[in-house]
Specification:
The structure holds two protein chains of two kinds. Chain A is an alpha/beta fold. In chain A, 32% of the residues lie in helices and 12% in strands. Chain A is globular, with a radius of gyration of 24 Å. Classes of the chains: A alpha/beta, B alpha+beta.
Chain lengths: 502, 902
C-alpha cells in the first residue's frame, strides 16, 4: 500500500516534532499511530519512522480494500423497492392500524398503501425485487439485504448525518474520512476519498456529510462533478486566467520551485515548507490524472449501454424521467469504477439532491410513483452495471458496496399517493468484498413498519462496524482524540454482523 | 439471529463482570470512576494564586519583561536560553499579521527599519493596537471559538440576514478594549445586566451563534420526539458554547452520563441547560439609542399595566356574573364544538416554488344551469401565521363552460388577471352573472398566494346560485389541476361541503345568540364607574399604540431571545417566557426523562455556588444573569486561565495549554503553569484589558526572538519548541492570505461593519438554498473587503477559504487546522479570486510605471515584505519579461514566503 497521495501531505512544524505533535493532537491512540505511520511511509519523516510502532497493516487480514457507498438522499422506500410485503397488498386501502400510537413526521397515517410496483423473484436466491429495481436482478445473488435497520430520527438532516457520519449532529467525520484516515491512500495523484454528488446539487447538510471534521483535513472527501468544466474545484484556471498557458504554467512551477528552495535554505528543519513545495508538484500531477480518470469517452459502447448512459440526447424533458436518471447515475457509476481502478479508497455516490420542489430526491411525500420510479430505475441500472463491471474485472472481491438512505417510508399512505418518513425501519444492502450474497439478514414486520424482532434491530453502527471489519479494521480501535474523547465512527456502539460475512 | 449485548457503561458496578468480554470496559469504567474521584485535583480549577516571578541567571538576555523570566528560567533549568532577536524586517511583518492581520507596506517597513528612536518597537505596537483593523483581526479568533455562522446549517440551510450585528459587536468590543468580564457578561445576559444598551442585545448573538435545525424546530412541534430531540441538542450547543468558550471544559460530555474524566455531573450539565431553557435563536428588535430603548420599554410597561387593570376589572365583572356566566360559557363551548364542522378547511392546490404558476379548481354542476351568482369563500389556516384568506389567489379569473377541459366555448365571468387582488380575509366575494348557462364553473389562479417561501391556491367554499337562488354547487363534484389531498382539512370535496369560516349554520346562529346573551350579562354586571374606566383604558391603549407607531424603526439582530410564534416553532413567548422544564435525561434520551432540575452550573469551582439563589417565578433572564456573574467572577479561575491561554496561542501559534477548549483531565497540561497563572492574575487584577495583555506579550523578548533554529542542542532537546527557545514560524490563516492578496493588489476596501458581503449567488432560495460560489464575480467591489465580513454559510463552505483551513462554523474551533495539500495549491493557483487579483496587482504595478525590472522589484517587496536579492530579481524579471506581470503576480501569491511568517 502506498501512502504518498497529495492528500497525505501533513502539517508539521519541524520534521522531528511532526510525529510527536500528531501523536499529541490525536491523543496517541491507535489512530494517532496509524497517522504517524502514514507520515513515515510518506518519507516526510523517514528518519523518525523506524522507531514508530505504526499500524503498518490493518488490525487483521482484510477482505476488502475499497468501499463504494450509494446514498439515496431524501429517504428511499424499502417497501416499494426491496422489502416485499404481501400483507400490504392484501390490506391496500384499508384503514391503517399499527396497534400502537405512531408519531408520524407529517400526516402520513392514511390507509395502508400496497407497494406501488409489482415484485418478482430474481436469481438463484429468489429474492423479490420491485419492477423498478429489476435491473438488479442479474446481481441479486451478490447482495445481502438488511431489512431491519432502525434510525433515531425522522428529520432528514439529522438522519443523513447519522448514516453518513454515525452522529446526528454536525461536526463529525464522514465514513470515508474515517476509512482513509485508518488505511491511507492507494494512489499518488488522486484523492483517497471521492464524492460524486447528485449532478443537480447537494443533499441535506451538503459537503458536511463528507467533511473531515476533527480529523486532519486531508481526509475530507473531495467532491467531483464529472460533467463540469472544473470537475474538482480549481483544478484548472477558469476563463479569467486568459494569461495562463501551458508554457507559462510550466515556467511558473519552475519559478516557484526555485524560489521556494532558496527560501528553504536556513529553514530546512521546517517540514511544512518542503511539504508545500511537493504539494505543487502533486497538484500538477493531479491536473493530468483527474481528467484522465473521469474521461469515459474511450469506454466501449456495450459498457456505456450497460450503465444506461445516453450518448445522443442533448436536452431532457422538464419532468423527472427514467432515461435522464439512468444517464446521470450511470455516468457516476462508471466514473466510480474508473476511480476505484486508479486506487481511490472510498467513493460515495449520491442519488437525489435537497428536499425541494419539484422533487428531485427520494422524499416522496406526494407521489411515490412519480418520483421514486425514475430515481429507482436510474440508480438500479447504473448500480447493476457497476457490480457486473467490477466483477468482470475481478474488483468486486475486494470492493464493498453499501447502499443506504436516511430512513424508510411508511406502509400507510400520505395524501393518497405518497408516503411519510419511517425512521422505525428501513433497508440497507451490501455486496462485494467479503459479503455473503443472496441473503437477508434481519427482517421487518409484515407491514414494513418496524423490525420483526424489535429487541434486535440493526443500527448504522453495526453496518459501519461490519464494513470496517471487512477492511481489516476493528471499529473500536480506530480512534481519534478530540475534546477529551477518543472518538470513533461507531461512537460507543456497533457490532460486526457476522452473518453478513461470507 | 444475533443478539445484542446491551452494556450499560455507566451503571454497571465495578467488579460484577459476568462476561469476560466486559472486562476491558469495566476496567475503563473503574479508571473513569477513579478519575472522577481525583478530579478535584484538576489543575485548572484550583484557585488562582499569583506566583512569584522567577529569577534568571543570564546577564545577556533582556528579561525586564516578567514573561521572559518565566520562559528563560525554565530554559536555563535545561541549560538553554532564549534565541537572539529577529531583525526589524521580520518583526514588523510578524507584528502586522499578528495584531491587524494585514501585511506592512514597503514604506512602513522602511520607516520602521530606519526609526532610530529607542522606543521604535513600542511605538509600532501602540499604533497597531490602536488601529481599527486590530479589532477585525482579533474578533475573527473569537468568532472561531464561538462557531459564529450566518446560515442555520443542517437541511434547508437558510440564511440569517441579521446575524452580522454580533460580529460587529465583537469587533467593536475588541477595538474599545472592553474589560473582559463585561464582554463575558454581555454575551450571556447583556439584555439583563446592561439593559437598554445596543451591546447588551447584539452580544446575545453569542448564544445564537451555532447551528440550528430548522426542520427539527420549524416543521416539528415540541410535542413530538423529533422536536424534543432537536431542542435538546439546541440547548446542548448553547451550553457547550458557553462553557467551552469561557471556561475551557468539555461540559457536553455529561449529556448522557456524568463526565467520565472531569468533575462534571449530569445534573450540573442539565442545570446549565435550564439556564437556556426559555430562549431560542431568533431575530430580535432593538434600539441603538438607550433613550429610545427606555422610551419603548416605558410604552410597553404602560401597555401591560393597562391590560392588567382591564383584566382585573373584567375578572371582577365575571365574578359578579357568577354561575349564570359559568353556565353560559359552558353552553358556548358546547355550541362552538357543534358549529365547527370538523376541520374541513377547503381545497388546497399543490405547493409551487414560484408564484406565477397556474392552478385551477372547478365544479361540475351535473347539468347545464342558468347561472345567477358565484360566491367565493376564502379559507383560513394558521399555517405560517397566515390565518384568514389563506391561499387566496393574488390574481384569478372565473369562467364557465360546458366542456370539462375548458377547451371550447369558454365564457368569462370575471377576470382579475391584470392587477393584484387585495386579500379579502374571510369576507365572501360575490360575482353576479347574467346570460350564462353552463355545466362547469372553473376558478383559475394566475398568481398564487404566498405561503412559506412557496405558493399555493386555497379556497374554503365555492357556491354557484341558479336563478332560483339555490346553491347548485353544494355537494357537486370538484376537479382540480393538482390538489393536495390531505383529509380532513384539505381535500377537493371540501370546496362544496357547505362549510367555510364564518358560515351561518343553525349551530352558528345559536352560538351567536349565546354570545350576545353573554355580552348582555357582562354589561349588566359592570357598574358605571368600571364601564367608564374600561372606556378610558381602551382610549389610553389607543394613544399608546399611536405613540408607538410614531417611534423610529427598530433594528434587528439574530440573537438568543424569548421567541413568540405560532405553529411548530412557538418558542416560550406564548407562555410568558417561562423556561421549559428541564429533566435529567437518562443516557441522554428524551424518551427517558428523570428528575427535573433548576438553573445552575458546575460544582467544581469550590468558591462559587453551583446552584443559583433566585426566587421561583423569576424572569428567565435572571438565570442567564446568574450564570454570567458566575462566569465573570474573579473567583472563577477557569475564566481567567482560559482567555490568557487563548491570547497566548494567537501570538505564538500554540497555547501554554495546547488544548484551549479542554482544561480537563484528558486535555493538555500547561507547559508553563506558573506563567499561565501569573498572566491570568495580571490580567484579572490589572485592568482586564486584552490590549494590555497583547502589549505585554508582544513586547517580550520571547516574542521578539528569531524563528530560525540557531541552537542545535535546543532543537534536539525540545523539537516541539514547547519551551519557546525560538519563535514559531506561522502559516498565514485563510483570512490573512485573502486580505493580504487584496491589500497588495490595491483592491482592499477597508470599510468596516454592516451586512456581510456574499461571495456566492443563491439559487432556489425558496426551499433549500443553493449557495453557488462559482457564479460570483470576484471583481465585484462589494466583495473586496476584509474577509471577516464574508457571509458564512454552514452547509457549503466557500471552497477557496475551506482549502486554506478557515474555521468551520459548525464546530467550535479552538485552533485552526494547518494543512498542506494539493487541493490548497490548486486553489492558490487557479481560484478565480487569485487569478483576478493577479491581474489587478499587475495593473497597479503598470499604473505606477517604471521598467519591468522596477515593477518586478516593487511587486516582490509589496507581496513578500523585502526587496528581492540580485539573483531573485534577475530570475523574476526574466520571468515577467517572458510571461507577463500577471503571471509574475500569480506566482508571488503562491510562494512559501508569502504564506509563512518567520
Amino acid at each position: 500500500m502506498k501512502n504518498n497521495s497529495p492528500f497525505h501531505q501533513l502539517r508539521s512544524a519541524s520534521p522531528a516534532l511532526t510525529r510527536r505533535e500528531f501523536l499529541w493532537r490525536s491523543g496517541g491512540g491507535l489512530g494517532g499511530i496509524a497517522l504517524a505511520s502514514l507520515l513515515g511511509r510518506d518519507n516526510l519523516l523517514a528518519a523518525d519512522s523506524a522507531s514508530n510502532p505504526a499500524m503498518r497493516a490493518p488490525h487483521f487480514p482484510p477482505r476488502a480494500k475499497r468501499v463504494i457507498q450509494l446514498f439515496m438522499a431524501g429517504a428511499a422506500s424499502h417497501i416499494d423497492l426491496f422489502d416485499h410485503k404481501p400483507e400490504l397488498i392484501k390490506r391496500d386501502g384499508q384503514k391503517s392500524d399499527f396497534g400502537e400510537h405512531v408519531e408520524a413526521f407529517q400526516d402520513g397515517l392514511g390507509p395502508w398503501l400496497k407497494p406501488v410496483w409489482d415484485f418478482k423473484p430474481y436469481g438463484q436466491c429468489g429474492r423479490q425485487l420491485s419492477e423498478m429495481v429489476s435491473a438488479l436482478g442479474p446481481v441479486v445473488d451478490d447482495i445481502a439485504f438488511v431489512h431491519n435497520m432502525v434510525g433515531k430520527t425522522g428529520v432528514h438532516s439529522q438522519a443523513t448525518y447519522l448514516q453518513a457520519t454515525g452522529f446526528q449532529l454536525p461536526g463529525f467525520p464522514g465514513m470515508g474520512a474515517w476509512v482513509t484516515y485508518g488505511l491511507g491512500s492507494m494512489n499518488d495523484n488522486l484523492p483517497a476519498f471521492v464524492v460524486l454528488p447528485d449532478h443537480r446539487g447537494f443533499a441535506s447538510n451538503g459537503p458536511k456529510n463528507w467533511d473531515s471534521a476533527f480529523l486532519p483535513p486531508q481526509f475530507a472527501g473531495t467532491a467531483i462533478f464529472p460533467g463540469r468544466a472544473n470537475p474538482i474545484a480549481d483544478l484548472m484556471p477558469g476563463k479569467r486566467g486568459d494569461f495562463i498557458n501551458t508554457r507559462s504554467e510550466a515556467a511558473t512551477h519552475e519559478l516557484l520551485a526555485s524560489l521556494n528552495h532558496e527560501h528553504l535554505k536556513n529553514r530546512e528543519s521546517d517540514a511544512r515548507l518542503d511539504a508545500r513545495i511537493r504539494s505543487y508538484e502533486l497538484a500538477a500531477r493531479m491536473q493530468l490524472a483527474a481528467p484522465e480518470a473521469l474521461d469515459i469517452s474511450k469506454e466501449p459502447d456495450y459498457l456505456l449501454d450497460l450503465y444506461g448512459i445516453d450518448r445522443t440526447t442533448k436536452t431532457w424533458p422538464k419532468e423527472i424521467n427514467a432515461r435522464e436518471e439512468m444517464d446521470a447515475f450511470g455516468r457516476k457509476a462508471i466514473v466510480a469504477r474508473r476511480l476505484i481502478e486508479r486506487g481511490v479508497r472510498f467513493v460515495q455516490i449520491w442519488s437525489g439532491n435537497d428536499n425541494g420542489f419539484p422533487r428531485r430526491n427520494w422524499d416522496s411525500h406526494e407521489d411515490v410513483h412519480r418520483d421514486h420510479g425514475p430515481l429507482a430505475m436510474g440508480f438500479a441500472r447504473g448500480t447493476s452495471a457497476l457490480i457486473q463491471d467490477l466483477k468482470q474485472r475481478g474488483l468486486l472481491d475486494d470492493t464493498v458496496i453499501l447502499w443506504t438512505t436516511e430512513f424508510g417510508r411508511m406502509p400507510s399512505s400520505q395524501g393518497g399517493k405518497g408516503r411519510d418518513h419511517n425512521p422505525y425501519v428501513f433497508t440497507n444492502w451490501l455486496a462485494g468484498g467479503g459479503i455473503k450474497g443472496g441473503i437477508v439478514c434481519g427482517e421487518s414486520d409484515e407491514f414494513g413498519y418496524k423490525p420483526l424482532d424489535r429487541a434486535n434491530p440493526t443500527e448504522v453502527y453495526d453496518i459501519h462496524a461490519t464494513v470496517l471489519h471487512l477492511l481489516g479494521i476493528d471499529h473500536e480501535r480506530l480512534t481519534f482524540r478530540h475534546n477529551s474523547i477518543n472518538r470513533r465512527l461507531t461512537d460507543v456502539h456497533g457490532h460486526v454482523i457476522k452473518e453478513l460475512i461470507a | 439471529m444475533r443478539t445484542k449485548q446491551h452494556i450499560d457503561f455507566f451503571t454497571t458496578p465495578c467488579g460484577s463482570g459476568i462476561d469476560s468480554a466486559l472486562i476491558a470496559i469495566l476496567l475503563l469504567w473503574c479508571i473513569a470512576a477513579h478519575a472522577r474521584e481525583s478530579a478535584t485535583n484538576l489543575w485548572s480549577i484550583q484557585p488562582l494564586v499569583c506566583p512569584n516571578v522567577p529569577e534568571v541567571q543570564s546577564k545577556i538576555v533582556d528579561c525586564s519583561n516578567p514573561v521572559d523570566r518565566f520562559i528563560e528560567a525554565k530554559l536555563e533549568s535545561k541549560g538553554l536560553h532564549l534565541s537572539p532577536e529577529a531583525d526589524r524586517r521580520t518583526l514588523i511583518r510578524r507584528l502586522y499579521f499578528d495584531l491587524i492581520g494585514l501585511p506592512p507596506s514597503p514604506e512602513e517597513i522602511e520607516t520602521f527599519i530606519h526609526d532610530g528612536s529607542p522606543n521604535a518597537y513600542d511605538k509600532l505596537v501602540d499604533r497597531l493596537l490602536a488601529s481599527p483593523q486590530y479589532g477585525e483581526r482579533w474578533a475573527r479568533h473569537w468568532l472561531d471559538v464561538v462557531h459564529f455562522g450566518e446560515t442555520h446549517g443542517y437541511d434547508k440551510d437558510k440564511p440569517r440576514p441579521n446575524a452580522w450585528p454580533y460580529r460587529d459587536y465583537v469587533i467593536r468590543s475588541f477595538n474599545e478594549d472592553k474589560p473582559w468580564p463585561r464582554f463575558v457578561e454581555e454575551q450571556v445576559a447583556g439584555d439583563v445586566l446592561y439593559p437598554f444598551t445596543r451591546d447588551g442585545i447584539e452580544a446575545l448573538g453569542f448564544i445564537a451563534a451555532g447551528p440550528w435545525d430548522f426542520i427539527g424546530h420549524a416543521e416539528v412541534p415540541e410535542s413530538k420526539m423529533d422536536g424534543k430531540v432537536a431542542r435538546n441538542l439546541d440547548r446542548d450547543d448553547m451550553v457547550a458554547n458557553t462553557i467551552q468558550s469561557f471556561n475551557s471544559l468539555t461540559v457536553q460530555c455529561a449529556r448522557c452520563h456524568d463526565h467520565k474524566f472531569d468533575p462534571i455531573s449530569q445534573e450540573d450539565y442539565y442545570s446549565l441547560q435550564a439556564v437556556f431553557a426559555a430562549v431560542d435563536r431568533a431575530d430580535k428588535a432593538y434600539d441603538f439609542d438607550p433613550a429610545m430603548a427606555r422610551n419603548r420599554a416605558r410604552l410597553d410597561r404602560a401597555k401591560k399595566n393597562l391590560e392588567t387593570e382591564r383584566n382585573e376589572i373584567r375578572e371582577r365583572v365575571r365574578k359578579r356574573a357568577g354561575d349564570a356566566l359559568t353556565k353560559l360559557d359552558a353552553a358556548i363551548a358546547e355550541a362552538e364544538k357543534a358549529s365547527k364542522k370538523g376541520d374541513a378547511f377547503g381545497y388546497h392546490s399543490a405547493i409551487e416554488p414560484t408564484q406565477n404558476q397556474i392552478q385551477w379548481v372547478q365544479v361540475d354542476l351535473g347539468r347545464v344551469v342558468h347561472l345567477d351568482k358565484i360566491v367565493m369563500h376564502p379559507a383560513k389556516d394558521e399555517f405560517n401565521n397566515i390565518g384568514e384568506g389563506f391561499g387566496f389567489p393574488v390574481r384569478f379569473k372565473i369562467e364557465a363552460a360546458d366542456d370539462p377541459a375548458f377547451a371550447q366555448n369558454v365564457r368569462s365571468i370575471t377576470n382579475f388577471a391584470d392587477a393584484d387582488f387585495p386579500n379579502p380575509g374571510i369576507k365572501e366575494l360575490s360575482f353576479s352573472v347574467s346570460d350564462i348557462a353552463a355545466r362547469f364553473v372553473r376558478i383559475t389562479a394566475t398568481k398564487l398566494a404566498p405561503r412559506q417561501n412557496d405558493f399555493n391556491f386555497a379556497l374554503a367554499e365555492l357556491e354557484v346560485f341558479d336563478t332560483k337562488g339555490t346553491n347548485v354547487a353544494l355537494g357537486a363534484t370538484v376537479d382540480a389541476l393538482d390538489s393536495v389531498e390531505s383529509p380532513p382539512r384539505w381535500q377537493k370535496s371540501n370546496l362544496t361541503d357547505g362549510w367555510y369560516p364564518g358560515a351561518v349554520t343553525p349551530e352558528s346562529a345559536e352560538l351567536a345568540r349565546l354570545k350576545s346573551e353573554r355580552s348582555e350579562l357582562l354589561g349588566s354586571n359592570t357598574p358605571s364607574d368600571e364601564r367608564s374606566r374600561l372606556a378610558g383604558i381602551n382610549l389610553e391603549l389607543q394613544m399608546l399604540a399611536d405613540e408607538d407607531a410614531e417611534l423610529p424603526k427598530t433594528h434587528e439582530a439574530f440573537v438568543a431571545s424569548v421567541y413568540s410564534g405560532s405553529g411548530a416553532f412557538a418558542g416560550t413567548g406564548a407562555n410568558g417566557g417561562r423556561p421549559r422544564p428541564i429533566f435529567i435525561l437518562n443516557r441522554g434520551s428524551v424518551e427517558n426523562p428523570g428528575k427535573e432540575v433548576g438553573p445552575g452550573t458546575l460544582h467544581c469551582i469550590a468558591s462559587l455556588p453551583a446552584r443559583f439563589d433566585i426566587p421561583p417565578d423569576h424572569p428567565e433572564g435572571e438565570r442567564r444573569a446568574a450564570l454570567a456573574k458566575w462566569l465573570s467572577s474573579t473567583n472563577n479561575p477557569l475564566t481567567w486561565r482560559s482567555i490568557v491561554n487563548r491570547v497566548w496561542q494567537q501570538h505564538f501559534g500554540k497555547g501554554i495549554v495546547e488544548t484551549p477548549n479542554d482544561f480537563g483531565n484528558m486535555g493538555g497540561q500547561p507547559s508553563h503553569p506558573e506563567l499561565l497563572d501569573w498572566l491570568a492574575c495580571e490580567f484579572r487584577d490589572g485592568g482586564q484589558s486584552l490590549k494590555e495583555l497583547n502589549r505585554l506579550i508582544v513586547t517580550s523578548t520571547t516574542y521578539r526572538q528569531a524563528s530560525a533554529v540557531s541552537n542545535e542542542r535546543a532543537a534536539s532537546m525540545d523539537a516541539d519548541n514547547r519551551l519557546l527557545w525560538r519563535m514559531n514560524r506561522r502559516q498565514l490563516e485563510a483570512e490573512a492570505v485573502r486580505d493580504a492578496m487584496l491589500s497588495v493588489s490595491g483592491r482592499l476596501d477597508l470599510k468596516m461593519g454592516g451586512p456581510s458581503f456574499q461571495d456566492f449567488v443563491i439559487e432556489k432560495p425558496e426551499h433549500s438554498p443553493h449557495y453557488e460560489y462559482e457564479l460570483h464575480d470576484p471583481d465585484d467591489p462589494a466583495s473586496q473587503r476584509r474577509t471577516i465580513y464574508r457571509f458564512l454559510v454552514r452547509s457549503q463552505p466557500e471552497p477557496f477559504m475551506a482549502a486554506l483551513d478557515c474555521a468551520d462554523p459548525s464546530m467550535q474551533v479552538a485552533r485552526r487546522n494547518e494543512s498542506v495539500t494539493a487541493l490548497q495549491s490548486l486553489a492558490l493557483l487557479n481560484n478565480s479570486l487569485v487569478v483576478t487579483l493577479s491581474k489587478h496587482f499587475a495593473a497597479k504595478l503598470e499604473r505606477d510605471g517604471g521598467s519591468i525590472a522596477a515593477q518586478t522589484h516593487r511587486a516582490f517587496y509589496d507581496a513578500i515584505g523585502r526587496p528581492p536579492t540580485e539573483e531573485e530579481a534577475a530570475q523574476l524579471t526574466q520571468f515577467a519579461t517572458d510571461y507577463g506581470m500577471e503571471n509574475l503576480c500569480r506566482a508571488l501569491f503562491n510562494l512559501n514566503e508569502f504564506a509563512f511568517v518567520d
